[in-house]
Structures are given as C-alpha cells and as structure tokens.
Amino acid sequence: MCALEIRPGTVSSTTLGCLIFAIALALLASCAHTITDPSPQSQPPLTEADIPALVAGMTLAEKAGQMVQVDVSTATPADVGQFGLGSVIMTVPDGKLGTTQAWRELFDGYQREALAT
Which of 37, 62, 66, 75 could form a disulfide with 79 if both were Cys (CB 3.0 to 4.6 A apart)? Predict the structure, then answer.
C-alpha cells in the first residue's frame, strides 16, 4: 500500500491538479485493451477517399444493418455477424458486469463477430 501525505501549504493547487491528472491518466492507460483482427491478411487503413467505393460495394441489407444500433439485452454477438449490425450499446447496466474483465469479454464477443464479417 502506498500513502501520500500532503500538508496544507506545501503543494500548490496547480501541482496537485497535475498530480491527480497524471494518476487518472495512468489508470486509464492501464485499462487500455485491444482486440486483434481475426483476418489473416493485413490491410492498409482506409481513408475518406475509400468510402464511396466501400459503400458502393455494400448490399442494401448491409447498408441497413450498419444504420442499426442495438442494446446487448436484445442482440447477441451472433446477431452482429448475421445482420451486420452497426453499433451495440448497453443502456441498462447488468449487475453481473461488475469488473472491467467482464465488460471486455462481453464486448470482445461483439467485436469478434463484427470483424469477421
């Protein structure tokens, strides 16, 4: 355990603010998580110039699916793959997702399905 004692008048409010910001930033960085693309080929990143060709190559069903946002209570990861759903949110927190690991596992399932389409 680590203890930090700050006595009144020894640290300016600017320094204290910077310290709190640095701690918050370190905590956020420690929570960073990425999921790897399951496709074996590596593709260069798309740019804005690529959008018209990409959209032109989509079916009407794919375009409609990309405009749909669903809640995790109404759609499974398999639904994301089957219907090409554009976005997944969670509007009603589930008590079983009390840890960052549980959230990661839930949304990684959706992300894997999306990347596989």
Answer: 75
